[in-house]
Amino acid sequence: MLVVFAIILLALVLFVTEWLPIDVTAILVMVLLMVLGTDGVANFTEISTAEGTSGFSNSATITVLAMLILSSGISQTGVVQIVGRKMSAFAGEDLDKQLLATIGVSGPISGFINNTPVVAILVPVVSDIAHKGKTSPSKLLIPLSYASMFGGMLTLIGTSTNILASDVSARLLDHPFSMFEFTQLGIVVLLVGSLYLMTVGHRLLPERVPVDEDYVTEYDIEEYLTEVIVDEGSPIVGSTVADAIDRVAFDADILQVVRDDEEFIEPIGQKTIRAGDTLRLRADRPTVQQLVERETLTIDGGPETDAELEPEEIPDRTLVEVVVPRGSFLVGESLETSTFRQRYDATVLAFRSRGETVRSDMDERRIRVGDTLLVQAAPDSIDRLSQNDDFIVAHEPDEPDYRTEKIPHATAIMAGVVGFVAVPWGAVGTALAGVTGVAALESMSALSLPIMVTALAGVVAMVASGVLKPTEIYDAVEWDVIFLLAGIIPLGIALEQTGGADLLGSLVASTGAYLPALGVLWVFYLATGLITGVISNNASVVLMLPVAVETASQIGANPFAFVLAVTFAASTAFLTPVGYQTNLFVYGPGGYKFVDFVRVGAPLQFLLSIVTVLGINFFWGL
């Protein structure tokens, strides 16, 4: 038991510090459990090799994998983006309408499409709404993330956390979630949370990104952008742009070359520098001074706005923000070690990481999930970035390429996936048997299939109907999420088998001497919310559900009520930007600081803790 607790502590430290990617941490946990298990060097964890690897064959893991592919198929049709444009037309310049449109679209859609890709799709849509409506994106992007969490609690398939919790509930209580198991409470949460965001929440959000500011001012990079003239006799005359500056010695990039009133931007790596050229540099003042003294250059001021930085003949979207989502090849890399510049002919002017704006010494900084890069590139490079799932470009492409003709197919497939799980075929068969007198119709209950089976069938149908190409199904899967689930599921099993859940349950159950069952339920909700704020929501479910069930058993309460409290708390993590991936998606484009999530999320978390606990008591009883 002590060894399992030590592994849990190690996992928590690694999750919080991000010394290793969270999926790698989960695999490390799995390996430790097996090495120290029944087939390893000792029997400290009581986990066999088969149990240690069971996460890969677990129905929750496979279901999440299938749902990610189905969500990708929906996004390929452009249906969410089309709804987003309708939302933009409705919103105009009225903040209340903008909030209503943002919440009204992201919430309900997230009930049927995994909420993580929904936010990834809508970040550029909402950013454009803010830009066109003369509103700070800071006022809309946190509401977008939070509303998607509300919507995720409408159905079983809204979040991967729900699917995982259903699997754990089936193992502990023999009670998996049905498709609409908690929809009634999810609707209450959606309505109360939306009302809070519409009336109170947006007032607590500062305008971190002022409405009229451009990127140069917003990222405060004026002093990092300088124009220099190449003098006659300069040693860089005749060199290519790629070779002109020693990046090992100098933290500087040549962004543009101006020659005879003609401006060149990426790709300019192989352009030869001539005397008289004006070079626009990204470098701090001391670096520029060293270059001037060493390379025979003359300082000629610097651009102060986006318009000055962008050539007139190139469309105005040569400067964009690019969010790095989980699973991107950039995660864990630096600009120096990655191939980002070469692959996209792009220059990174600055980036935001966990609320900090980085303008110098960028090449060595490790890029993390949620970091937002300020990128300058040619329009075709921006289009390639927009089409790559490794990035979320915070502006919609001008001519998006969607398979709109496949919208009916994708919609019908999703309806089938949900319908075969949700329809009570047994009741339908019994009713038809009574009406028609055909007793064989009572066997229609056999048509009811597990969500894993219908989701996998949906994947096959997506490919067969042309909604998805066969090669796209692999790109659609967030493999880090899959490895996280596979690695963390055995930890919950170990917690149960070693008696760790019993011990923790006994400790929490002792509060029953001072609190009623409803109070203990509320404690579990708050504790899960706090834990989810610093580690993965899926990890918090695996750790907290066995303890919650054991606690409920010891105080004589309804264990399923405790399962629901943990599930709702883990799926609605508002307090920090790192507790839920959708928060990371909006962190950079909204220009937020860590405290903004606490300021808006803490009152909301407290409000929903009361609403959810009372709702569970009302609908399911204690």
From TrEMBL:
Name of the featured protein: Potassium transporter TrkA
GO biological processes: potassium ion transport
Q: Which SUPFAM superfamilies match?
A: TrkA C-terminal domain-like (SSF116726)
Q: Which domain of life is it from?
A: Archaea
Instruction: List, for all copies, the residue spans of the domain called RCK C-terminal.
Output: 213-297, 307-391
Its membrane topology? Multi-pass membrane protein
List all membrane-crossing ranges: 25-44, 56-79, 99-123, 144-165, 177-198, 412-441, 447-468, 477-495, 515-548, 560-580, 600-620
Q: Name one GO cellular component term.
A: plasma membrane
Species of origin? Natrinema saccharevitans
